[in-house]
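Protocol step 4 of 6: structure prediction from sequence.
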Amino acid sequence: MFDIKVHDGKAAVMCHSDWDNGSHNGNLMIEETGEGKVPQFHLKCDSWSNHEIPSDREEGMGFLRKWLKEEYNNEELLFFQPHMVQLVLMKYVTMHSLHKKPLTFEALDFQQCNRDNPFLTPGVFKGTYSSHGVEMVMITIEDQRIVATKLTGDPNVPAGQVTFDVDLSRPVTDDAQPSAAAGSGKAQEFQIPPAYEARYTDYPRTYLARYHGKGRIASHGFVSPQWTRGHFVLFNDDMFGFLWIELMAFSVYSRTTEPFLR
């Protein structure tokens, strides 16, 4: 975390760490365009060691529990879900080593809503990604496609990569009622297959549209990325889901409510 204060035309940057050891200075590097806009800026921490994980084992465990509470709302997560240890610790270490190099921040480019085809209002959504927790994606609509690009990533698929791509020309039909297309806009009953995992279960039990799509998966470090089959499920303009068929998982996405993300 950091804050920027402007005094007499000069910007002062203060960095803050998770360890309650006070604030310290940082440097701000701004690149302006000819139009006076700032599409991106860089932040360099002058005391990056303040962000590192404490070397003392007892102190380090205390901060790990605090971070788990903030990130997953469960400080005992690793005890009850040991299969998540590797992924969670990798994320923990990565997040607390970011300040060794300058951080780059880019302005978000929000797509304008096409009122002639208001299938889904573009914007920023937060979604569940199994053991990776909650991540943010930018939804854009291009012709007959919905594209979700990660704004925050994970060790497998990082920020900036497309997380799923939906083909709006391919609605999923109900096997029991082949004539009823899932893109008809009429509410239909929805439930995930029994063997599927869903970290968020308070989603609607009816949906308005369902389309074929593909989701991006990869090994750690975005190694060997590939596409896998999926279904896009539209509940309403503020919530949708994505069924990862081969992973047997269901991600739920809800529109962000913060004013600066709308």
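Step 5 (inspection) to follow. The CA atoms of residues 210 and 233 lie 5 Å apart.
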